[in-house]
Amino acid sequence: MSKAFLQEIIDKEKSLEDVPQNDVISGWASRLICLLYPELSESRYTEVDHIAAAYGKLKKELVIMLNATKACCDCNNEKVAADFFAGIPELYRVLNTDVDAILMGDPAAKTEFEVIRAYPGFLALCFYRIAHLLLVLKVPLLPRILTEHAHSQTGIDIHPGAKIGEYCMIDHGTGVVIGETSIIGDHVKIYQGVTLGAMSVDKSMASVKRHPTIEDHVIIYSNATILGGDTVVGHHSVIGGNVWLTESVPPGSLLYHNAEITVLEGKTLK
Predict the structure, then answer these.
(1) 3-state secondary structure 202-237
(2) CA 135 to CA 154: how far, in whole Å?
(3) Of 65, 77, 134, 241, which is least packed with CB atoms within 10 Å of its CB?
């Protein structure tokens, strides 16, 4: 290798942001989730002071991560961390509605413990809701790293900028994509392979709402694709499997893919 090539690598390294490694960031969020849901943890806290100390440690770690990120250097990172942890009780309340939605919505789910411990949709929502709260507080980069970690673990890709209401149920989940400007109401059920995407990936649309709005009490079955920032799925609608939707539908709609099946009787196919 030439010295010029090696120097190019060195110069690039010098210009990099000093962001903590992805496993450090995801590990921090995982420990927070385990504090909220001891069903996922080997640790058990029997004293309020002990669990308070654990939260205090996570708060200090968040400040350290923010201080290490160049984009956060001019921010009041102590206040950002304080505001984030002040929002944890509400985050926990909303996550519990997600647990309830899965438990009540999936006949295969027997207990809350099973949902918390075994359902990838719930894990993806945990990371998403933490990431979204950080994004609301204008924390750069870390939210995206968190949701991409969840994506790698569950196959569920939720952009931290999406707005998702209470009682969200993502069942099975593999292949679900929820884009940055998606808006999802309360009591929405989403099955595997669903895409809430944009009509175009043109870079000029970066600051435009380009993903759909899903109102309350909507069910979206597997492999449905809903595209466009102006597309609104009205409340209490059902979107069937494999539907391709690029236009708004009124409340109470039922959309399904009308597949044509031809049966050749009495013939041998070769």
Answers:
(1) CHHHCCCCCCCEECCCCEECCCCEEECCCCEECCCC
(2) 21
(3) 241
- Model-level pTM? 0.91
Quote the strand ranges of the chain, DSSP E.
157-158, 163-164, 169-170, 177-178, 183-184, 189-190, 195-197, 213-214, 219-220, 225-227, 232-233, 238-239, 244-245, 254-255
Q: What are phi and psi of 233, to 5 degrees?
A: -95, 115
* Alpha carbons 81 and 65: distance in angstroms, whole number: 10
Query: What is the pairing mode between strands 195-197 and 254-255?
Result: unpaired
For the record, the structure tokens of 112 come out as 């809350």
State pLDDT tens for residues 198-254: 998 777 667 789 999 999 999 999 999 999 999 999 999 999 999 999 999 999 999
Cα–Cα dist 228/17, whole Å: 34
| Structural domains of the chain in order of their starting residue, each with its CATH number | 16-156 (1.10.3130.10), 175-270 (2.160.10.10)
pLDDT average, residue stretch 131-139: 96
